[in-house]
Amino acid sequence: MSVVKFAWSAALAATMATVLATSAAAQMELRIIAPAAPGGGWDQTARSLQQAMTAEKLVKSAQVVNIPGAGGTVGLAQFVNAKGDGNTLMVNGFVMVGAILLNKSPVNLSQVTPIARLTEETQVIVVPANSPIKDAKDLAAAVKKDVARVTFAGGSAGGADHIMAGMFVGASGGEAAKVNYVPFSGGGESLAAILGGRVTAGISGYGEYEGQIKTGRLRAIGVSSPNRLPGVDVPTFKEQGIELVLTNWRSLVAAPGISDAQKAALTALVEKTVKSNAWQEQLKQKGWDNAYLSADAFTAFLKNEIVRVGDVLKSLGLVKS
Hints:
Elements: H1 3-26, E1 29-34, H2 41-55, E2 61-66, H3 73-80, E3 88-93, H4 94-102, E4 113-128, H5 136-145, E5 151-154, H6 160-171, E6 180-183, H7 187-195, E7 201-205, H8 206-215, E8 218-223, E9 247-254, H9 260-274, H10 277-286, E10 289-293, H11 295-315
């Protein structure tokens, strides 16, 4: 066979595989597991996918199933038992990577099939408007002077906010294991603590504090993205000489042991979804940043992220070496 004929045959085979995978997905009765209670970020992601897929008629049907508990590890344990199930996807993300280590979960993300990274959310550190801390350098100086006197408010222990507090302290020359972190179960509670001056600074996704930043009640001293956010006049930590980059990403994984054909169908389905107008509208409504990575790229990213998060949790003294 000539080189030209071989190349043409390979291209035709790849095209046919994509068509077949897309056709298979269109007939799929899909389940999307959100390993969290209704209303949170993973649940919102699952339901946004459900809406986009059904609106674009990419699946026959899509059902969201909530399995809350232990940072997603309860849902993960059940999902791992669904070996070979090519009609189910599970939403997960940055928080689950840490939760697996903190909860000493008997199952982990090496047991699932990575499909795609979907979105990411930039983190921000804020202080009250009347705080003497004007920028990230001021906060870094305070940390370096006496880390115990600098208190950070955020979400659950071991989550993205806690990890970022530890990373900030470490990048500022302090001892990450001594970070003074106060976890809150809800955004309203942490906001009240920040505005009331009961903590030095607060950490969350930028969208969580955007309204308070715009009204001037809170001062944003830095964002965790590698580059400035479009239309947001807040410098990155890197701009201010602090090596801190972190995004709270969300993703999709499939069950372990699925066939190549099942993986191709799910991968094609997700790729068509993230390119659809319906999904772009969901991103706009929710204020999420598109961070799509296809299966192979996401697999490599996930391996690196597991190592990175593990190292930070060890430095915080939350996980033993």
